[in-house]
Amino acid sequence: MAGARRKLIVVSNRGPVSFSRDESGQRIVRRGGGGLVTALRSLVAHHDVTWIASAMTDEDRVVAVEAGDEAIEEVARDGSSYRLRLVAVDPNTFHRFYNVVANPTLWFLQHYLFDLANASIVEPELVRAWDEGYVPVNAAFAEAVLAELDAEEDATVFFHDYHLYLAPRLVRERRPGAALAHFVHIPWPQPDYWHVLPERMRVAVHDGLLANDLVGLHTARWRDSFMHSCAEIIGAQREAEEALYRDRRTLVVARPISVDPAEFDELAEDPAVLERQRELREGRPERLLVRVDRTDPSKNVLRGFRAFELYLERHPEAHERVGMLALLDPSRQDISEYAEHLAAIERAADAINDRFLRGGWKPIDLRVEDDFPSSVAAYKEYDVILVNAIFDGLNLVAKESALVNERDGVLILSENAGAHEELGPWSISINPFDVDAQAEAIHQAFEMPPGERAARLEALRAQVRANDLGEWVAALLGDLDRLAAPA
Domain holding 276: CATH number? Predict the structure, then answer.
């Protein structure tokens, strides 16, 4: 990671650690998971980082109160030190912010998930949650950022994702010269879809983001949609890579995030992964179709199951030879839409298994649990992996799985996943809404000649290794350097 050591204020809803109590009452520190935290972890080793995040657990709130609105010293897994500042708000305020506005409203909007003909989207509850949840939480984050800038005025502020669209404008109004950047890790829809929201909300989202010096998205597709939305909704002008708005130029870049290949090289030999792999090999079918996802509606699990059912209908010769392993991490089960979706997934798997079950063969092995070692073991063992997301900001499964697969596995990849912009040439591309085509893609993948399978996987692996997580971070820091350079 090239470049001088710099002072960074990283701002995200979820932090690198969370706090809880064990059975004896002792405080436990758990290292954060998830793609964002993993991606940003390397910043701590190379720069002076203060990380601002939400106090999400009860014990997080206790830690925040004990700190008295100050940052605490923490240590990353590699021994690097950083400062952590937790933003604690009233639990009801946080619920409105997180469970009503951020998820599901903004998430559903940006993944095109709304049932526009039937769903009651803009109800009084949403308006109240915006005013009494999303706005005050963003204001609380802005105050925390401003306090840190008081201490380190030359630090660069690096906001992340859809939870914090309003905070940059609040900081900019008080610190006009601050260096502000924001990375959006999810898709950016076309401007018409933003009209689902009341005008003041959609304007505030775009206005807040263009208070930054730099906005990053994963693909040229999402970047161009963002530029288009800014023009249509708030009248911003586009000049090449820049958006001009309120006498400010914002650089807007496409920077696809990646993974750390060295980490997955180590994971592939981790004892827990090797044990899961041994168990998987003992019970695996002759041919294995894998999917690894969260139980989020955007991941398109139900259509994937239906496509596999169609494949089995059309290819009776595959019965008792082919199986699907679906490893699904339960997601946001305190939100009704997500709980209902998981129940639908379980019903669909049961129905397909009831239809085709014979002897000891069960077509779909559905496991709903948070078990990353099992996911890595499945990455190593798949013959075909299905990534059929409706829309996805990027999708790291498509990258992670290629690094460790040992069976010349074939990737089936949605054309609406951000990763398709990079990995499309070496995958089987699918329309995520076309179940018939997905069934045919499954057949094509299983019947692909061995030489072609090996060549595709090697090309995927080379692409990911050449464009790794370090390259992503370095590119973004290079963008910040461009902004700081004299005109």
Answer: 3.40.50.2000
Tokens of 464: 């990911």
* C-alpha closest to that of 383 among 470, 469, 430, 447: 447
State whether 270 and 342 are in the same domain: yes
Within-domain flag for 311? yes
Are both 235 and 275 inside the same structural domain?
no
Q: Which residues contact 79 (CB under 8 A, 6 or more apart)?
A: none
Torsion of CA 185, 100, 129, 122, to 10 degrees: 100
With a CB cutoff of 8 Å and minimum separation 6, the contacts of 4 are none
The answer to the question of residue 2 being in a domain is: no
> 344 is in which domain, residue-wise?
261-466
In one letter, which amino acid is 95?
Answer: H
Would 116 be classed as within a structural domain?
A: yes
**Considering all CA atoms of the chain, what is the largest pairwise distance in Å, rounded to the nearest integer?**
72
Separation of alpha carbons 404 and 393, rounded Å:
23
Let me know: does 480 contact 265? Beta carbons within 8 Å: no
For 23-55, the pLDDT digits (tens) are 888 898 887 656 667 667 767 877 899 999 999
Model pLDDT for residues 280-336, shown as the tens digit of each residue: 999 999 999 999 999 999 999 999 999 999 999 999 999 999 999 999 999 888 788
What confidence tens digit (pLDDT) does each residue in 167-196 have?
999 999 999 999 999 999 999 999 999 999
Phi and psi at 175, nearest 5°, equal -130, 75
Q: In what order do the strands lie in the sheet with 287-294?
A: 364-368, 322-329, 287-294, 384-387, 410-414, 428-430
Verify that 456 and 433 share a domain, yes or no: yes
- Has residue 1 been placed in a domain? no
